[in-house]
Amino acid sequence: MTAVHTLSGRGQRRAEARTGGLLALPAMVYFGVFWLLPFLSAAYLSFTRYDLAGTPEWVGLENYRRMLEDPGFWNSAQVTALYTAGSVLPAIVLALAIAVPLARPGRRNGVLRGLIMIPAVMPLVATSVVWRIIYADGGPANTVLGLAGLGPVSWLTDERLAIWSLVVMVTWKHLGLFVIILTAGLQALPRGVYEAAALDGAGPVRAFFSITLPLLRRTLLFVLIIAVVGSTQAFVPAFLLTGGGPAGATEVLPYYMWSNAFGFERMGYASAMAMVLLVMLVVLSLAQFRFLRGGDDE
Fold first, then answer.
1. Higher confidence at residue 241 or residue 194?
2. Entry pTM
3. What is the chain's mean pLDDT, rounded?
4. CATH code, residues 66-293
5. Which residues are within 8 A (CB) of 141 and not within 5 positions of it... i.e. 6 or more apart?
6. Which among 84, 104, 242, 287 is placed 20 to 30 Å from 277, CA to CA?
7. pLDDT value for 294
8. Is residue 289 pLDDT above 80, yes or no?
9. CA pair distance 124, 224, nearest whole angstrom
């Protein structure tokens, strides 16, 4: 009888494994076709000279050596770093400041949470077009400055302002998503800890820094990683608003890769830059993970 039950249990587990495999098959096919295969193709092309017309010619590490001597690559890397620093940390701080009061229960807060998500669900192309109108010479931004007695500003053609104009647009675009994620994290925190802290005489400020931030660390880690990854994919704003200009002031790495791949037909060189950007993202994400999770397992 025991042997029969054992065989029956094994057969059931095998059937469940087959069912699970069939259910996971569409996701595995999608991952293989649209993620793994393009990654392997880009990794191979990064070691070749390929102009989209002929056959890829193996050149080894030539593309990577070329990057070290390319002023355009270093300029785009610097612009990307500036864009990331300007669009990530301020957005997270602002999102946390908004999420704290919105995490409180109430119908009004629920409505506000819905409204603040509107920019996040707008297509990025549509958002870029709207902000191009806002930044136009006679657009709302310069109209407001005119009411304040200030002259018009060339938001997208001034080398000093162009990158920050993109930062403002992207912060506005992603702020709602960060607020919703942080609000969910705040609402999941145990209330008993705050009640105990209040009995011990801890005020709101001390409770925020001593309780809220440490308990919210994992949520902040998630928001930080998706913010950094998103900031390095800033092709659409740079393409639609500034075209990488003026004078390369907004030529972020994705735009520089695109211009090399399709503008100059240097697909191998562009693929090498994509691999370098991927490695940079992995290292940066691991560093963030280690920093923000430090002490969680102790």
1. 241
2. 0.83
3. 87
4. 1.10.3720.10
5. 134, 135, 153, 155
6. 242
7. 55
8. no
9. 20
- Would the pLDDT of 5 be above 70? no
Separation between Cα atoms, residue 252 and residue 247, nearest integer Å: 12
- Give pLDDT tens digits for 34-47: 888 988 999 999 99
Q: Name the token pair of 227.
A: 């913010």
Burial of 161 from C-beta contacts in 10 A (0-12 / 13-18 / 19+): middle
User: Residue 295: its pLDDT value, please?
Assistant: 47
Measured CA to CA in angstroms, residue 105 lies from 113, 159, 202 at distances of 11, 45, 22
From residue 80, alpha-carbon distances to 17, 53, 76 in Å are: 45, 30, 6
Place of tokens 């930044």: 135
Query: DSSP string spanning the chain?
Result: -HHHHHHHHHHHHHHHHHHHHHHHHHHHHHHIIIIIHHHHHHHHHTTEE--SSS--EE-TTHHHHHHHT-HHHHHHHHHHHHHHHHHHHHHHHHHHHHHHHHTS--HHHHHHHHHHTHHHHS-HHHHHHHHHHHTSTTSHHHHHHHHTT-----TTT-TTTHHHHHHHHHHHHHHHHHHHHHHHHHHTS-HHHHHHHHHTT--HHHHIIIIIHHHTHHHHHHHHHHHHHHHTTTHHHIIIIITT-STTTT--HHHHHHIIIIIS--HHHHHHHHHHHHHHHHHHHHHHHHHHHTTTT-
Give the pLDDT score at 286: 84
Name the residue ranges covered by the structural domains of the chain: 2-45, 66-293
* pLDDT score for 292: 66
The predicted structure's pLDDT at residue 298: 42
For 18, 40, 254, the CA distances from 10, given in Å and listed in that order, are: 12, 38, 51
Return the CA Rg of the chain. 25
Q: How far apart are CA 5 and CA 8, in angstroms?
A: 5
